[in-house]
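Data card: per-record layout.
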Amino acid sequence: MTARVSIRLAPHAILAHIGAMHGAHSHAHGPDDNHHHGHAHSHHDHGQHAPPPSDKRYIIAIALNLGFVVLEAGAGFVANSTALLSDAAHNLSDVLGLGLAGFAAWLAGRAASAKRTYGYSKATVLAALANAVLLFVASGMILWEALSRFAAPEPVQSVFVMGVAAAGVVINGATALLFVAGRHGDVNARGAFLHMAADAGVSAAVIIAGALMLLTSWTWIDPAVSVAVVALIVWSTWGLLRESLDLALDAAPKHIDVGAVRDALAGLPGVIAVHDLHVWAMSAQKTALTAHLVRPDGGDDAFLIAAAEAIEQRFGIGHVTLQVERAQRDDCVDC
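The structure for this 335-residue chain is written out next.
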């Protein structure tokens, strides 16, 4: 049961109660800015992450890496280097991943529709998940080729390999820099950054392998470097896979302590219970919350608005929906 009552509580009192230590403050709202029937919504972007990188960054990254894939694959056949060929295969998966990430970033900017009321911003999460899967598939291909070369090692043109790999360090490093600014706030951009940073590391490893083969003539170093590359990719991708899978399954973002959110809501003046609390990522940058507050005295617009804004400012949750109930339901299993 929901309710609106005539008593009004000062918004600043609630802001101070929840978020004074965070410099919380109240925003002015007109009478039409709040939904009725005991609900309060906050749709601001305060505390949310910066928008994802522009589509131009993805276009530049795709063009650079596609050209390098052609160069590296041809060089790998000429030099008979499994390290170059495996890196070219990995870079090709990166081109596909960048294309997917760029498309998702563009799709996320489209407006919501009557059918997709949250819009398309979840596409960035799905793209990050697909990118992680692509990286694991590429790792399997590299490992398979490397193991076959251990069984039948072949001579490698080390100097040629080192020259191509040096170009890879420059191209992949420059591409990674395109996404360095958004990697912390956007799991989609983080996936693109990890792709490129891993590629730069792989190319550096190939240079080291070429130098060692020049000094020792040990042909097994070439596939050994490929195995090391696989280990690096798997290690760097595991976190991306886990985070993107959590976001795809509507888990609470890792930077939000749901227990602390529940305690903050339960500590509001007059609130005796909190139930049906849900926190999830609407996209790689936006977080949403819904909760029912049991408050015998009810809650007017001022209480609801101030509570929603305080949660937004303390926890960075920009889409807050609260419902006040005068009595706790008998069938509540989350109270």
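Known properties of this structure: Residues 187-216 form the longest helix (30 residues). Residues 11-48+253-325 form one domain.

See the next section for split statistics.
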